[in-house]
Amino acid sequence: MLCCMPGVAFVPALLVSWSSAAFIISYVIAVLAGHVEPLVPYISDTGTKPPESGVFGFMINISALLAAITMYIRYLLIEKQNESSHFVRSSCNMFTLCIGLMGCTGMGIVATFQELAVPSVHDIGALVAFGSGVVYITLQSVISYKSCPRWNTYFVCHIRMAISVISCFAFIPMIVFASKISMTKIDWTPGEKVKSY
């Protein structure tokens, strides 16, 4: 099986490196072009205008592919471990994979449909990406606990669950505040009225 091959661990590392580079490169281009303020812009704002929109879209789509490959490797790993331990139902593992792949699809939608070009599609993609991501990491945390102590340490499980809880708490205000605003442009001048839809 693929998950038993040495060297597969480079895929998650590549995912983190590539995704970080995607955000940093598009941010630097957007700031140098004067399209965003340097102090903490929204991630989507750094991929809205050309030329950074092309870089952002291309790199985030590759990140979505790498994330899908990483999730599939994790799925195979759990299936292989489950052959001897039977700590989780195979259908639960498959369901978790499907949720993760939904998140990757949402990520691809976010990358393809820019924030200001098609805002409703972009927002739906972001909701699917972040929502599925939170559910995926929570389910993976539960699976990790079920695999203890043979396949995981409780320390690693606690770290994963802490990340899941933080993600849940971050997701809720994101939904609340995102529903309160509608963006039609990035650059605002003092005294300019905001259009609301």
UniProtKB/TrEMBL annotation:
Keyword 4Fe-4S applies: no
Subcellular compartments: Endomembrane system
One GO location term (cellular component): endomembrane system
InterPro entries: CWH43_N, DRAM/TMEM150_Autophagy_Mod
Domain CWH43-like N-terminal span(s) in chain numbering: 8-182
Tagged with keyword Transmembrane helix: yes
GO BP annotations listed: regulation of autophagy
Keywords: Membrane, Transmembrane, Transmembrane helix
TM annotation in the entry: 7-33, 53-73, 94-112, 124-143, 155-178
Predominant cellular place of this UniProt entry's protein: membrane
Domain of life: Eukaryota
Membrane topology label: Multi-pass membrane protein
PANTHER family to which the protein is assigned, alphabetical: DNA DAMAGE-REGULATED AUTOPHAGY MODULATOR PROTEIN 1, FASTING-INDUCIBLE INTEGRAL MEMBRANE PROTEIN TM6P1-RELATED
Stated family: Belongs to the DRAM/TMEM150 family.
Name recorded for this polypeptide: DRAM1 protein
